[in-house]
Amino acid sequence: MSKTENILLQLTGRALFDAPADFNPATVDWPALYQEATNQALSILIWDALKEEERSAIPENTVLRWEQDSLRHIMSNEQLLYEQEQVIRLLNKASIPCAILKGSSSAACYPRPSLRIMGDIDLLVKSEQQMAAVKVLQSNGYGDIRDESHHCHMNIQKDGIAVEVHKEPNGMFMNMNDEIAQKLHAFFADAIDKRQCADGLPFLSDEQQAVVLILHKLEHFMTSGLGLRQLCDWAVFAEKKMDDALWGKLQPRLSEFGLLTFTGIMTRVCVDYLSMPENKVLWAMQYDKETAAKVIEQILKEGNFGKKAEKYGERLFNDPNSSNRVTSFINVLGNVCREHWPPCEKHTVLMPVAPFVLLGRYMVQRQRGERPKLNLKKKYLQAGYDQKLYKELKPFVVE
Fold this sequence. Notes:
55% of the residues lie in helices and 7% in strands. The chain is an alpha+beta fold. It has a 4-stranded mixed beta sheet with strand order 1-2-4-3. A two-stranded antiparallel ribbon has the order 5-6. Helix 9 packs antiparallel against helix 10 and helix 10 (228-241) crosses helix 12 (260-274).
């Protein structure tokens, strides 16, 4: 871990939990710190956490960029929140109940919610109402569905603002067996009926929100890359919500979903590196300290959604439940085909042609600039270390 990364973690702990930060402002590489904060989608959170004497040590051009960046994100957050209210109002008027996934529901747990950078609007609706919800929004200025093949959500946009209308949370089909998938479906079946209201906004119950956050962390950690912002979402949620009563209900659920070790390790990372109060999550301290260290190194290396290290395609080779990278490729390719070309989920006879369908779709998306270049040989070589690390996290292994 570099000195700059260490200071970034200290300042994150100060911002989230008012923890002490021990560094000399005169020796900080401030442009590098600003860039790291940007890579991890924490620029406004870190800027707000700086003391006056620390800001005075920053070079003038970096101060200007940081202030402008912070203002831009704050304005973007305001636009997203306004649009979110309008979208929810439209759906309510159409008698389509919904609940917010991530975004402002995560921000609500922050000491200052406005400092959590938002990317888009994620809403969960009942599966049978997903298309009706999309049509309501399209009749009010939203465009065509983007990436219609996604198994969890439909993405539509207006004026640069994306709304993802979910029929289920992300991460539901990622490398899990059918039994766990069925249990997760059953767990979320009543999510809309059990939603809670806070400040006029519909959120999931605390127990279901916790599982959504964990699934989201796991999906990004194993695919595009997990950033500090997403880790912060879990840290503030756990610190604010995870009392003995909630953990008592959540622990057996995580166990049967095969998410218990991953949750424990991620929580230990929050304690060891984000200064989350240990007494709030004593149950997490039994998990391996060395594995937690490997996880934070991975997060710092990759950045928010893999901004620092492109992982596109690496998922094919790093399945922790496969014996090696070749069997991982075979197993994960089957999952990817079922996720992104639903007909072969219902008609297994289509499975042999599914990879070619997805390859053709990728080539079109690549031509449009919607997908990065895929180098399978490079991803095969990179995935060796990751596969070993993921095995230690035991994703979707019932304990």
